Automatic annotation (TrEMBL):
Protein name: Carbohydrate ABC transporter permease
SUPFAM superfamilies: MetI-like (SSF161098)
Transmembrane residue ranges: 12-31, 121-143, 152-174, 186-206, 227-252, 287-306
Domain of life from the UniProt record: Bacteria
Amino acid sequence: MKQNQKLGKFLIYVTLIFMAVVSLLPLYWVFATSLQLPSYQNETMEEPINYVESTPPKLYPVGVNEYFHQWKMREAAEDAGNEAQAVYHDQKMDEVVTKTFEGFVILFERTKIMKWLLNSLYISIVTTVAIVLIDTMSGYVLAKKKFPGKMIIFWAIISTMMIPEQVTLVPTFMMVQKLQLFDTHWALIFPSLALAFGVFLMRQFLLAIPDELIEAAKIDGASEWKIFWTVIVPLAKPAMAVLSIFTFVLMWNSFLWPIIVLNDENLLTLPAGLKTLQDANLASFKLLMTGATVAAIPMIVFFLLFQRYFVKGLSMGGVKQ
């Protein structure tokens, strides 16, 4: 029996590792392409080779191998006293470094990627703070207050999670236009001030808080506002942290809505800004992959720092009343 259990666990781990590798392969390919050599020729090649668009694609940065190859050749030339060859291989080493990182140099010197990064950071932080506050208040009311139609309101909010974003694009766009928010950052912030998933998450968490704590605060003369800030918020911090992470990632990766309501290049978020590089035909495939790499790195760091909260958030979402 124990051997069967070990075999079953082994197969599960193998399957999970395989799925993880398959899932991460496209991301790795993006990173590798951003560091790939474009149109390069050394002493052994008959004509230049573009490794960025080679078929089949190279799944590792060729420049790393080429740099060490040229370094070994230069050392050999210096040992043999062939100064001309040593200079040639030294120049090739510089060329490899320059071409490997040229995508990052072009991206940061010739585009507005720093402004787009700051725009994404600003919008993500403001929206996250607003959503966490509003959803915590909504979850508190739906979890602890008694009033007619409470469950109808709750299920009405939950039902909005089943509506695809594309369905609400036109009415939301009309609202933004009438409020004269078009081509401003408020066009991104205002329609996102409440999140149905956040209301659900906070309500489910707050249901576990004993009502006796709230009753005791009322007996001590605390107002509703004071009960919320001094009793509910401190106890709800774990769920608020989870909601903050989910919201920040959602807003950071938002793509469709920003390209609809923003025209000014200085106001674009990072995903929308990268789209303009492709539209303007100013960028090569390597440059696009470099932009995707720059956009992905903050989220990867963010996930690594808070991964245990991601797992906790998924388990919270599954709690039933």
